[in-house]
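Bug report

Summary: structure tokens for Cupin domain-containing protein differ between web form and batch submission.
Environment: batch mode, default settings.
Steps: 1) Submit the sequence below via batch. 2) Compare with the web form result.

Sequence submitted:
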Amino acid sequence: MESEIINNTEIESKKRIYHFGEKIRSVREKKHLTLKTVALQAGVSESLVSQIERNRVSPAIDTLLSLANVLDINLEYLFEEYNRRRPVSIIRSGERRTINEEDIMFEEVSAPAEKDGQNTLESYMITIPPKSRTHRGSYGHLGKEVGLILEGSGILHYENERYELDCGDSVTFSAGAPHTLENTGDVPLKAVWTVTPAQKFLG
């Protein structure tokens, strides 16, 4: 019996409580309707409408339909966020995908989601040995890039300009122009880079 109670408690704790009272109140106020007016037209008490708007009670389906009808609310509007997932994505340190381009290594930090289309975003760590440089950006591509130098120093070659970057420096630029990152120091250059839309780890 005790195990049944525990199991039921676990199930209840996993239930998602969804509130839409704020939406009902917002629509009512925009239409300049009082609680009393809405309650009378919906055939319920003013107190009940007030409690629903404050998320104190969950209305029966027929009550909700009546309120939606009075306020001319589309039910999809009320429940549009109910099934919207907000996942948390974790990539463990020992499970990162890596890409090697000659002697340069890219380690995935944030994976792009294909469903985001042109809004995909990826983040990765770059390790560039001394006297080496990246190559894939040398012709430019769509989107923007943001980089943060974690260790070492180098130069961002952007079009015909050179920008010196030291440990702790960050840089943001349009990726449409040719660009490469060169390690000019004597130790590996390590940086975190974020790119949108995704280029390397998509797919």
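Above is the batch result. After comparison, the two runs are identical; trailing whitespace caused the diff. The two ends are 49 Å apart (CA to CA). Strands lie at 98-101, 104-110, 122-128, 144-151, 154-158, 161-165, 170-174, 179-183, 189-196.
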